Amino acid sequence: MKYDLKVISASESVSNITLDAISVEDAKHQAKLKGLIPLSVKQKSEHTLTLRKNKSGFQLILFSHELLLLLKAGLSLVEAMETLCEKEQRPMVKTLLDDLTNFLYQGLPLSAALEQKAENFNQLYIAMIKSSEKTGDLVDVLKRFVDYQVQVNLVRKKIISASIYPAILLIVGGLVILFLMLYVVPKFSVIYEGKGANLPFLSHLLLAWGHMLSEHGFEVTVGFIGVILLAIYGLSRKKFRQIIFDKVFQIPSLGEKLKIYQLAKFYRTSGMLLRGGVPIMTVFEMVSGLLNKDLGLQLTLAAREIKEGLSLSVAMERHQLTTPVAVRMMRVGEKSGQMGQMMENIGDFYDDEISRWIDWFTKLFEPILMTLIGMIVGIVVVLMYMPIFDLAGSIQ
């Protein structure tokens, strides 16, 4: 991981440096070995591949796809940019494309023009474009980028679609249970008032809940809404989501699948950049943000050993960033010299594994969830009607 340090040198001048370290203490130790006194240490934010629509409405994947089509049709880069600018209707996006076109007219290469608008183009994308300018294969790089994003979106959409039905079941089932507990049960508690010890024990507990709601309904409602709002606020905070993700990551079976999902993105992105001509160490610095904290630390250790001369496959295997299949594929890539293509193949293999697991999990989880919700609703209803069943039996 990268750390930004503010240090004092022997000449008592203050400067900022960046070090590759495994922890804050390691970064301080490295600075002291250089004869510097660290004043502050801050982990450097990693440049991850963010492709979401920004506030201006600009979409990087759409821009890349349209630019690719125009270049393949035979237009020059400047003509393609002018065409995109002319057809654009959104003012902010049109301004962005106008600025890029003007930069090209001034003689800047495309990568330099994109750097002038870095808030819209992440460093991974700019690095790919810059490497393509050295080899003259801008069309191929754009095609690989579009193909990469399509594949990533397929896996993401599969996960989202697999989550929709269970989410609907949870929402509807939860609303039914809330209706029973907040409205129906208090009504039944009034009907059974006075029965006292004649009620079954579990029915007595359920109806005691109804009495409590009837006496403190407002406080319970406010508290319930407060808990929901607090949960929504927590989920909107990145740090809270990271805590939940870390806890889920510790679940053996589920954590292993999440690790494979992260490794799939890591290998696919690394392969795309390597094929674009970006050096391997630069690639690792860029894509480390795709991994969680623990895996990112392992990647830093692996990168350090690769710098020292250890082979990529051995370093990645030593730090548990591979599977047996991935190790064998990387060894083949090292022998053939096609490591970029091999890493993309590893990403494909992992994506297929995740897709199969999602299909299996949804087929198993959905009926279990329906059964669980049905059991909860059934138990509540039976407990409410149990005194009536007892009364009917005594009449007979």
Largest sheet: 3 strands, antiparallel
Under CATH at level 1, the class of the largest domain stands as: Mainly Alpha
User: Would you count the extended β strands for me?
Assistant: 3
Shape: elongated
Cα Rg:
29 Å
- Oligomeric status of the shown chains? single chain
Alpha-beta content class: mainly alpha
Structure in a nutshell:
With 396 residues, the chain is mainly alpha-helical. It has helices spanning 24-33, 60-72, 77-87, 91-105, 110-115, 123-135, 138-191, 201-215, 217-236, 238-249, 252-275, 280-287, 293-307, 312-318, 324-336, 339-395; strands at 2-8, 14-20, 37-43. It is built from 16 helices and 3 strands.
Task: Describe, in plain words, how this protein is organized in 3D.
It contains 16 helices and three strands. It has 396 residues and is mainly alpha-helical. The protein folds into three domains: 2-43; 60-121, no CATH class; 136-396, Up-down Bundle (Receptor-associated Protein), CATH 1.20.81.30. Strands 2-1-3 form a three-stranded antiparallel sheet, with helices on one face. Strand 1 and strand 2 (14-20) form a beta hairpin. It starts with a strand and ends with a helix. Residues 45-53 have low confidence and may be disordered.
